[in-house]
Amino acid sequence: MNGIQEVMSLLRKQREAIEEAILGLERVFGPDGEAAPAWLPTTKTATKKAATKRGMTPAGRKRLAEAMRKRWAVKRAAATAKKRGRAKKAA
Question: 28-78: per-residue pLDDT in tens?
Fold first, then answer.
């Protein structure tokens, strides 16, 4: 009989844990489970977008902007050198 009492005690503890979990969910989602909190995405696309969206840090944005400035400066310098070279040949 001691084994059965032990099993019943464990089952009661599990029931209490389940009831606590249900109460916690009801506090967050309401008693019907219908009302979702504002932070929870409401559609699959919102969840998918949130999972795949990648942001750029301000430091990364700054590095990228500086790299593009350097790239365009080199292109501009090459274009003006090319124009100057043609102008000298034509004169």
Answer: 777 776 666 666 665 655 556 656 667 889 999 999 999 999 999 999 999
Which long-range contacts link 79-83 to residues 24+ away (Cβ below 8 Å)? none
Local confidence band at 91 (pLDDT 50, 70, 90 cut-offs): very low
Q: How far apart are CA 44 and CA 52, in angstroms?
A: 12
Residue 67 tokens read as 């790299």
Q: pTM here?
A: 0.35
Instruction: Report the alpha-carbon distance of residue 85 to residue 74 in Å, rounded.
Output: 16
Q: Which amino acid is at 85?
A: G
* Integer angstrom CA distances of residue 55 from 52, 58, 59, 61: 10, 10, 12, 10
Q: What is the DSSP string of 60-77?
A: HHHHHHHHHHHHHHHHHH
CA quadruple 54, 56, 57, 59: dihedral sign: positive
